[in-house]
Design goal:
Layout lengths: L1 H14 L11 H4 L3 H9 L9 H8 L4 H13 L19 H12 L3 E3 L2 E3 L21 H15 L5 H15 L7 E2 L37 E2 L11 E2 L43 H15 L4 H11 L4 E2 L56 E2 L10 H8 L2 E5 L5 E5 L13 H4 L5 H12 L1 H17 L9 H6 L2 E2 L6
Antiparallel strand pairs: 1-2, 3-10, 4-5, 6-7, 8-9
Helix pairs in contact: 5-7, 5-8, 6-8, 7-8, 10-13, 10-14, 11-13, 13-14
The structure holds protoporphyrin IX containing FE (HEM).
């Protein structure tokens, strides 16, 4: 076993760095090479311990306004090595959605199960294995690589955990969205050890199997009685250790976006549709994850998903049918550094498209879904709930083949937007729908609730489980007074 582990280590050593430095100058600041993480987990590499005291003292001198300005500038500065979204949707180029998803996926690991907190962005373990391997985190290595420029500029004045959470908050604020306050003080971990209980996906062998139990499948599969037997099973909520993951173990940590597929005998099934994903059952899975595992109320859940999917887009504008990747778009050997050739994620492979734009911009595949949620994905707006409440949505396939939804009226003002089944769950559950209607009618209430929930999202973690812990301990906060 030890020898097999060494084999993996050797391969990683040889191929690490296949994404060229001149293409992505600060890539390695954002994502730690897998070989280094594995050595650190084995205890064979001495660590530079993060000096907490020094950091907290230094924070008092942090020029928050110039940090905000650096991130906002970067957000609008589309780079050839990872072009910003916007042009493909008739919008201006912006990394706002990407930075917001980065902060959400870093913070959304937070779990509150039976009063015990786990996960959260403090520690910045998303830079490390295993979080940087999770399918849910695809292409976030590029976002961290872009922010490496800001990290390079500010050096030890800002920890990665503070930078990732502040970048997401800045992205919202600088796009016209609501943000009330942000507090600094998060410290970084030296490796991803504390993320291992949250799940290791698809890894068959490494480190003599010490850390590499694959949690891809649940020990006890659960399907709704109305669900197709061939569809993904859920991890039953009563399985204790799986409450650290999401209601589905697929992708590992959040919610299964496609939702459950109905079986042909279920009420509402139609053989004429390209899919029969159920927003009603998806709502139960959203609640299972957001309320039972992450500790959010229904109101916070609706505000967070609605605000999150006001910005940015999904990426899956590539049809792999007939290619060798068709049945197996992801590497499941691992641990597999995302940028490494063979990881099938992003520019190193160029699985989609040809020439200079292979794997980039309109050829990016992250989740396999395709399209924006709103008409201006780079700017805060109120399309998300309005479109879901006023339009009829019909099932379609993305070019990649994922099950999603579009407006039935092809002349609608929202015709260019899309929805996931998990989005539509918010108008197919009585409690969620009442809140969605309230937000569609009262934008100020939506803004205020989203800003509060976002603050809580990026401030709670295993180390500081209460939303005001960072403020009361370190007192370095901004209310964005400098933003005009
Ligand atoms: C039911 C819960 C959720 C599901 C199933 C879900 C699913 C997804 C999926 C599939 C994508 C597309 C990724 C890609 O292809 O690039 C995405 C993107 C995104 N999500 Fe979510 N999400 C959820 C909740 C949230 C929340 C709570 C937030 C923030 C508060 C959020 C913020 C975003 C943003 C900003 C993007 C756009 C990324 C970009 O433009 O590159 N999501 N989400």
């Amino acid at each position: 076993m030890a020898l097999r582990g060494m084999g993996v280590l050797l391969i990683l050593w040889v191929t690490e760095g296949s994404m060229r430095d001149d293409d992505f100058p600060f890539y390695d600041l954002g994502t730690i090479p897998a070989w280094r993480d594995l050595r650190s987990l084995r205890g064979t590499q001495s660590q530079d311990q993060f000096d907490k005291e020094k950091y907290h003292k230094q924070l008092k001198e942090l020029d928050v306004q110039s940090l905000y300005e650096s991130i906002s500038r970067l957000m609008k500065d589309s780079k050839a090595f990872w072009p910003a979204d916007g042009p493909q949707d008739g919008d201006v180029a912006s990394y706002a959605g990407l930075f917001e998803r980065l902060a959400w996926h870093c913070s959304g690991t937070f779990r509150l199960v039976n009063g015990t907190a786990a996960g959260g962005c403090e520690g910045a373990r998303q830079r490390h294995w295993p979080e940087n391997e999770w399918r849910d985190n695809s292409n976030l290595d590029k976002a961290r690589g872009l922010l490496g420029q800001v990290k390079h500029e500010f050096g030890s004045q800002i920890s990665w955990s503070d930078l990732l959470t502040f970048a997401g908050t800045t992205a919202i604020k600088a796009s016209g969205g609501p943000a009330k306050k942000f507090c600094f003080g998060r410290v970084d971990d030296v490796n991803g050890k504390r993320s291992i209980p949250l799940g290791v996906e698809g890894v068959k062998e490494c480190l003599g199997n010490k850390f590499c139990k694959s949690d891809f499948e649940c020990p006890v599969a659960f399907r709704w009685p109305e669900q197709d037997e061939a569809d993904h099973a859920r991890c039953n909520l009563t399985q204790p250790h799986h409450r650290l993951q999401a209601s589905h173990s697929v992708g590992l940590i959040y919610v299964y976006p496609e939702g459950p597929e109905l079986k042909s005998s279920a009420k509402g099934y139609s053989a004429k549709q390209v899919h029969n994903r159920s927003p009603r059952f998806s709502a139960l899975e959203v609640r299972d994850t957001f309320k039972e595992r992450m500790g959010w109320t229904d109101r916070e859940t609706v505000a967070l998903i609605g605000g999150g999917h006001t910005m940015g887009r999904t990426h899956g504008n590539c049809n792999l049918t007939g290619t060798k990747w068709a049945s197996h778009p992801y590497n499941e050997v691992g641990p597999f550094f995302e940028a490494q050739a063979g990881a099938l994620r992003g520019p190193t492979d160029g699985t989609c498209g040809t020439g200079a734009s292979a794997g980039l911009a309109q050829n990016t595949v992250s989740s396999g879904f395709e399209g924006p949620w709103t008409r201006t994905p780079s700017q805060w707006n109120y399309d998300f709930f309005d479109a879901m409440l006023t339009e009829e949505w019909e099932p379609v396939k993305s070019p990649f083949g994922a099950d999603q939804w579009r407006t039935k009226s092809r002349h609608s003002t929202y015709a260019s937007t899309m929805r996931l089944t998990a989005d539509l769950s918010l108008v197919n559950d009585e409690t969620y729908a009442a809140i969605a209607r309230e937000y569609a009618a009262d934008h100020a209430k939506f803004d205020s609730d989203f800003a509060d929930a976002w603050y809580k999202l990026v401030h709670r973690s295993e180390d500081n489980p209460n939303e005001n812990d960072l403020e009361s301990k370190f007192g370095v906060c901004t209310r964005f007074e400098f933003v005009k």
